[in-house]
Every structure is written in C-alpha cells, then in structure tokens.
Design brief:
Blueprint lengths: L1 E7 L3 H12 L4 E5 L6 H6 L1 H19 L14 H25 L3 E4 L1 E6 L2 E5 L11 E10 L3 E3 L12 E2 L1 H6 L6 E5 L3 H13 L2 E6 L10 H14 L2 E4 L2 E7 L4 E6 L5 E5 L1 E4 L3 E3 L32 E3 L10 H15 L13 E3 L4 E6 L2 H6 L5 E6 L4 H6 L5 E6 L6 E8 L2 H13 L4 H5 L10 H11 L12
Parallel strand pairs: 1-2, 1-6, 2-3, 6-17, 8-15, 9-10, 9-15, 10-11
Antiparallel strand pairs: 4-5, 5-6, 7-16, 12-13, 13-14, 18-19, 19-22, 20-21, 21-22
Bound molecules: flavin-adenine dinucleotide (FAD).
Length: 474
C-alpha cells in the first residue's frame, strides 16, 4: 500500500493536518491505533473534561443561587446518566470526524504504525487480533508524526491498583468516591478535582511546588486558589507523595511536607503530574528523526524533523501540549508538504485553565518579562468594578494587559474570572494583529459584558478608565 501522505495519529493535530492535506489535493491516509478518531483531546481530554465541567458549573451555580433567594434542593446525581451524556458528546464528535474523513476521501486505517524505515510503516493490528503484526506495510512520500502524549505515571505511583487513576480513569467516571486525592496541582488535576468535588467527593490536592498551577501568573492564580480552598477538602502545597499502597477498599498515601508527615487514606487517587510525549516503541530509531532528552521530536518552524520525509506536530513535537497548538502545527505541515510557503509564525499560543474561575493567558507574562529583562507596563482591571461581574455575583476576576511602555503595543494578556477562556480570544487577535492598547480601549465593547474588562484594562493603561479612579499628579 502507498499513500502520498501518511498521518500517524488521529488526534486534533493529526486530523487537522490530514483534512487540510486532502483539501490541498493530496492523497492522505490516517493510521490511528484507537478505533475512533479524535485522539486524547476528544476521547480522553479536552472534550469529555469540559462536558463534565459543565455539569460541575451548573451544580455550583445552583447552590450559589441560595444567596439570591432561590433555593434548589441538593442535586441527586445519577452517575450512569452523567457518564452516558459525556460519552454521547464524544461519540457525536468522533463520528463527525469519521464522516468528514470519508467526505474528503481520507483513508483511515485502524492500526498501530511502526516505522520500518524513513519511507515505510508496518501496520500492527490492535485490539483482540494480534496475529497480523508486521503483515501489512504502508509506504509514503511524506509522513506527519502526530502520536501525541500520554499521562505521566512514574513507577513508584504505578501500583497497579484500580483505585489509582490517571486522567483517563478519572474521565471514565466509574463512581463518585467519598474521598479523592489529586496528586499534582496543574490544570488537569484542578479541572478533574473540580468535577469530582462538585459531584460530591471530598477532594484533597497535593502539590510539590509552593503554589497551584506552577508557571502561571500568581495574580491570576490567587482568586482560583481562594475558591479551591473553599470548595475542596484540603490543598497541601510544598507536599510530596512518597508512596502509595492499595489496602483493599482504599489507598494509603505516604505524605511528606511541612504540615503533614503521615499516612492518609483515600478512596481514589488521581495522578496528574504531567504528560509524556509518545515517541518511543514504534521504530523512530529506524528513521533519521531526532528525539531530545525530554522525549520530544525536534522540528524546525515548518514542522520538518531531521528526516526529510517526516514531519512532526502537536504534543509529540514539544510544549505547550495543547490541542489548538497541535492543529495549528498540523496545518503548517500539510501546507509545507503541499508546496505552500507556510511556517510557524504565531505571535502567541493561548492557554486556558477551565476551572472555576477560569484562568487564561496569551503572549508575554509579567514573570517572563522580568526573567528576560523586558521592560513592560502592566495595566489591571479588577472585576469588582465591572457591572456585569457584580450582576453575576462573580467579582473574583481580573483582566490585565502587559504593554510595551515605548510603543504601547500589547505584548500579553492575562485574565482570571468566569468565562476567561472565551475572553482571551480577543486578546489573541490583538496580539496577533500587533494592536496598540488604544486600539482595544477605543473599540466599543457591548455593555454590560465581561468583554468590556478587556477594553477597560486598556483604559487603565491610558489613565482613562471610568470606574477606576487614579488621581493624576499635576
Ligand atoms: P493526541 O491527541 O494525543 O493524539 C495522538 C493519537 O495518536 C492518539 O489517538 C493515539 O492513539 C495515536 N497514536 C499514538 N501512537 C500511535 C501509533 N504508533 N500508531 C497509531 N496511532 C498512534 N488541550 C487543550 O488545548 N485544551 C484543553 O482544554 C485540554 N484539556 C485536556 C484535558 C485532559 C484531561 C487532557 C489529558 C488533555 C487536555 N488537553 C487540552 C491536551 C490535548 O488533549 C492535547 O494537547 C492534544 O490532544 C494533542 O493533540 P495531538 O494531535 O498532538 O495528539
């Protein structure tokens, strides 16, 4: 079998690349080990987690209505129905991808691809039938490597217990445990912790660092940390999980840290300490592809690897491990293979933590500016001044711009608050278009919306914000 383009991996990077390559007139085959298209994002990541976070949001909002004089009864959760609904969302989208592939005449082969050399992949059967290993070969002119990533599970935490799960297990939603430990205070742990906490579990988070969401702007993390502390059972910062032991119906966890040096027991443990790129065990050593010490495939700005026939995109090609970055890179690879003059030249890649409140940022952060010695001005608009935030009863937010003091060009934006993930899109466009802060501040935003905070933070920079009084020195 031969295909002009083979895409190895059918996640958001892989299918975006495959579909565009087909639209550009190339003959394309996707090789995907899972029987469904969609990859981590659709099957075990972005989409199922957001479907469950929607449930969590409705539960917490209904509870908070009591302050407004509207009382709902305590929710009764039918976990089977919640799981079915989430699975249906995934099935609808995955089925849609299958139809889109068919419409574009993209061939989809359900197999595990293993490189024989720089032009050939062995198709290993997956699932029950393992007899056809190596029986079928697929050759290609170009291959786009889009094998993604998998949950990091170090050996000392991988004790083979059904009560110790990665994000895959947490999304399966087998039950609502009475108590759950989340190991790792990154975005996946906090999102899944939010889901289980709102569904009724007592959630404890243990984070090695001295703050949640290491790497994110501390000003943005503060309101989230406050709410997480209120709604979760406990958050233990600067603490380490030294070991796990399955004791039948529970897991014994050895915790070390300034507050607790003891053994705690939980019904379930979610290990969410990061993700590893999938770059081993499928013959990359038989090609010229270079994998760095962290397991990422090295690429140039056209997604070319060191092997002239092979491109790499998405999680396997480096941080940030995000679906929209994977899709963007996938489209570049497809265009380059089709002979178009494409390259990765995005000014920023947005990041969103879909907790409550949400945190979103794009472009340069205040910390990065400091580390890199870049002079910036920071303009912050507190949501306590926003009419819409007050009307919503959610003033625990802030919008901030990072601005070049010489030119007033916007370099970065950070937002914390409900819906921050939607609001950051405007900031992305502004950064991408090289906007001056005045462009944003003087764009008429609809009232009363949280989107106004994006313009109002610009007004803060210009010293003209209506609701923020800053006396000028004369
Ligand atoms: P993947 O989506 O990982 O797809 C890789 C595919 O390759 C898989 O389907 C795999 O089966 C297949 N594969 C691997 N090896 C082979 C082989 N040898 N042969 C055949 N097939 C193979 N990102 C966001 O942007 N927003 C979010 O809100 C978000 N939420 C997340 C929540 C969770 C719980 C998790 C785990 C991740 C989340 N992510 C989110 C990250 C996002 O899922 C990834 O960044 C994205 O899926 C990466 O896409 P990809 O195409 O590079 O790889």
């Amino acid at each position: 079998m031969h295909s002009q383009v083979v895409v190895l991996g059918g996640g958001p990077g892989g299918y975006a690349a495959a579909f565009l390559a087909a639209d550009l007139g190339l003959e394309v085959t996707i090789v995907e080990a899972d029987p469904r298209l969609g990859g981590t994002c659709l099957l075990r990541g972005c989409i199922p987690s957001k479907a469950l976070l929607h449930v969590a949001k409705v539960i917490s909002e209904a509870e908070e209505m009591a302050d407004w004089g509207v009382d709902f009864a305590k929710p009764s959760v039918n976990i089977d129905k919640v799981r079915d609904r989430k699975n249906n969302v995934v099935a609808t989208l995955s089925g849609g991808l299958g139809k889109l592939a068919e419409a574009r005449k993209v061939k989809v082969i359900n197999a595990r691809g293993v490189f024989v050399d720089s032009k050939t992949i062995n198709l290993e059967s997956v699932g029950d039938d393992s007899s056809t290993v190596g029986s079928e070969r697929l050759t290609f002119d170009h291959c786009i490597l889009a094998t993604g990533s998998e949950p990091a599970m170090p050996k000392f935490l991988d004790i083979g217990s059904p009560r110790v799960m990665s994000s895959n297990g947490a999304l399966d939603l087998a039950d609502i445990p009475e108590s759950m430990l989340v190991v790792g205070g990154g975005y996946i742990g906090l999102e899944m912790g939010t889901v289980y906490s709102e569904l009724g579990s007592k959630v404890t988070v243990i984070e090695l660092g001295d703050g949640l969401l290491p790497g994110a702007d501390r000003d943005l993390v503060k309101p989230l940390a406050k709410r997480v502390n209120e709604r979760f059972e406990k958050v233990l910062l600067s603490h380490k999980v030294a070991g796990l032991k399955d004791i039948g119906d529970k897991v014994e966890v050895t915790v070390e840290g300034p507050e607790i040096n003891d053994t705690l027991t939980f019904d379930r443990v979610l290990v969410s300490i990061g993700r590893w790129p999938v770059s081993k065990g499928f013959g990359l050593e038989n090609t010229k592809v270079v994998v760095n010490e962290r397991g990422f495939v090295e690429t140039d700005n056209q997604q070319r690897t060191a092997d002239p026939n092979i491109f790499a995109i998405g999680d396997v090609a480096g941080d940030p491990m995000l679906a929209h970055k994977a899709a963007y890179e996938g489209k570049i690879a497809a265009e380059v293979i089709a002979g178009e003059p494409a390259a990765f030249d995005a000014q920023a890649i947005p990041a969103v933590v879909f907790t409550d409140p949400e945190i979103a940022w794009a472009g340069l952060t205040a910390d990065e500016a400091k580390q890199q010695g870049i002079k910036v001005k920071i303009a912050q608009y507190p949501w306590q001044a926003s009419g819409r935030a007050i009307a919503n009863g959610r003033t625990d937010g802030m919008t901030k711009w990072i601005v070049d003091p010489e030119t007033d060009r916007v370099l970065g934006c950070g937002i914390v608050g409900t819906g921050a993930g939607e609001l950051i899109a405007e900031a992305m466009l502004a950064i991408e278009m090289g906007c001056n802060v005045r462009d944003i501040a003087e764009t008429i935003h609809p009232h009363p919306t949280l989107s106004e905070t994006v313009a109002f933070a610009g007004e803060v920079h210009l010293g003209t914000a209506t609701e923020v009084y800053r006396p000028k020195r004369r």
